[in-house]
């Protein structure tokens, strides 16, 4: 058997064996275990805390902790076949970056710059719900796995076609890795909206959030084809379509006493 066919066969076996399913039913590729990716997340968070200062504003930190706590407490109620971290560490980082993240191993980080765009507790809940959903849906393991497969494919293709590896890398990133990441983002938007609704946060505020994001970008966002994130208009469209079912979850949560009250 020729080398290309051998490599193709090996990759085919790996892809079949490593297939999993996300909470929304999407097929996933996972080549690393939950424990491995959790340790990666813990290590990354420890390193970040050494490099980026936490806010000295105790009220700001308590506000973020309040919203994050309301979100993480309802995770066990979701009907998702996922591995749930035993506990969550939440840190508010002093930075002008309009961003937040969650990492495997139960780590949540929010940059103070985000609080100028996510202007209400519900909008902040939309962001935190989104980021936590990345962890719960196994997107980090997928990212590690897809990057590994992409690198192998690039090297092999370059060796047998004579095309420069850097050229192939750009094609691989644009046509495979970036669309895959956009799938992650879209999935986390919807799962995060479900999660915030279950916690008693107004899901319509997730749409308001992305309108704020669009205004903050001043029209400078990358074309969707070359971005790892869906466009703001795509996100607003998809969230609007899901809003009716999440309004039901929200009303049920409020009726059961889930009424978060987090203030700065």
Summarize this structure as a short list of keywords or feature phrases:
8 helices, single chain, globular, 264 residues, mainly alpha
Note down, in words, how this protein is organized:
The chain is 61% helix and 8% strand. The protein contains 8 helices and 5 strands; from the N terminus they run H-E-E-H-H-E-E-E-H-H-H-H-H. The protein has a 3-stranded mixed β-sheet with strand order 3-5-4. The termini are far apart. The N terminus is likely disordered.
What secondary-structure arrangement, pairings included, does this model have?
Blueprint: H1 3-17, E1 19-21, E2 27-29, H2 34-51, H3 58-73, E3 89-93, E4 100-103, E5 107-111, H4 121-136, H5 139-161, H6 165-198, H7 204-217, H8 232-255
Parallel strand pairs: 3-5
Antiparallel strand pairs: 1-2, 4-5
């Amino acid at each position: 058997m020729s080398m290309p066919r051998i490599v193709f066969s090996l990759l085919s076996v790996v892809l079949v064996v490593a297939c999993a399913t996300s909470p929304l039913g999407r097929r996933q590729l996972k080549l690393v275990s939950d424990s491995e990716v959790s340790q990666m997340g813990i290590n990354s968070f420890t390193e970040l805390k050494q490099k980026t200062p936490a806010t000295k504003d105790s009220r700001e930190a308590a506000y973020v902790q309040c919203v994050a706590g309301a979100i993480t407490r309802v995770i066990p109620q979701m009907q998702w076949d996922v591995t749930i971290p035993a506990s969550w560490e939440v840190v508010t980082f002093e930075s002008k970056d309009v961003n937040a993240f969650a990492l495997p191993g139960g780590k949540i980080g929010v940059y103070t710059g985000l609080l100028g765009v996510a202007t209400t507790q519900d909008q902040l809940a939309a962001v935190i719900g989104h980021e936590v959903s990345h962890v719960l849906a196994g997107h980090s393991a997928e990212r590690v796995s897809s990057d590994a497969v992409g690198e192998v494919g690039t090297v092999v293709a370059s060796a047998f076609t004579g095309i420069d590896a850097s050229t192939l890398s750009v094609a691989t990133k644009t046509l495979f890795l970036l669309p895959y990441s956009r799938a992650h983002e879209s999935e986390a938007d919807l799962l995060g909206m479900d999660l915030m609704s279950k916690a008693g946060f107004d899901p319509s505020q997730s749409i308001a959030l992305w309108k704020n994001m669009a205004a903050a970008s001043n029209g400078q966002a990358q074309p969707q084809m070359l971005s790892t994130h869906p466009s703001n208009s795509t996100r607003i469209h998809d969230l609007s379509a899901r809003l009716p079912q999440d309004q039901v979850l929200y009303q049920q949560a409020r009726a059961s006493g889930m009424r978060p009250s987090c203030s700065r």
